Amino acid sequence: MQNYLNNPYINYGNYTKGLFNFANRRNTYTLDRQIGDVNGDSVPDIVYLVGDKNQNNFYENIRLMIQDGSTQHWYVIPLYPDYSNAFDSWLFLGSFTSFSSKEIMVSLAVGGSGALTYYYVISFYNNVAQYLLGPEQFADFVQALQVEIKYMDNYRVLVKSNMLNQSYIVDVSDRKEFYEGRVYDKEGKLIKPLEGFLIYQPHLYPVKTDGIAPYKLQAQNDIAGTSHADSLGSTVTYWKYDRQSKSWTLAPEYFWVMLG
User: What residue ranges in the chain does DSSP mark as E strands?
Assistant: First the structure.
């Protein structure tokens, strides 16, 4: 467990009436704000997501600012230096661990051809910052599912997880005009073997599958055909945080394909 006072990236200071006491922070903006008990004392706290705006409408040095509802003290939690930039961002407060406090989920949309977004889930229980999820952690989880995408004759695409021993067939006949002569001949036969690919960095959403249980993360990973722009849909999986292993586990051990 990481204590914020021992974090080398921490930017901790005294704040007055919610305003920065640094004169050179006029380009600092509030990107989102949520209210909820994040330290477990049953008193709502105020959580801000703030960042410094550059000339290209891109926010840098994004960090969390928390005002303790009981003491009015301020705490600043940094994000990893290489993953603290975004065009767009949001906050979500909810319990992923079943503790009395809520965890803080951060979404940072970076953009690009794959609509790249980085995510954090951070606990601030007892005013101690602990990173439950880092920006690229889920890419490793999804890669372990061993998903393969293979084109088949007659405008069909196989989406299979070798780890889960589960598969789907996606009909791509609606793209006949685009694929004919490139992927398929006029009889619908493959011109040559072809594989698509899965975008391992997912889009994550907090979801409730049980009113009593903690939140899970729904991961949507884009399925690409001949290129990033040739989207065949997404795989959908659900993950819960395991307090024993301090990791995220697939629950249920199953995946779905969402067409789109």
Answer: 28-36, 45-53, 59-67, 74-78, 88-94, 103-111, 116-123, 130-133, 147-152, 156-161, 166-171, 197-198, 203-207, 216-224, 231-242, 247-250, 256-258
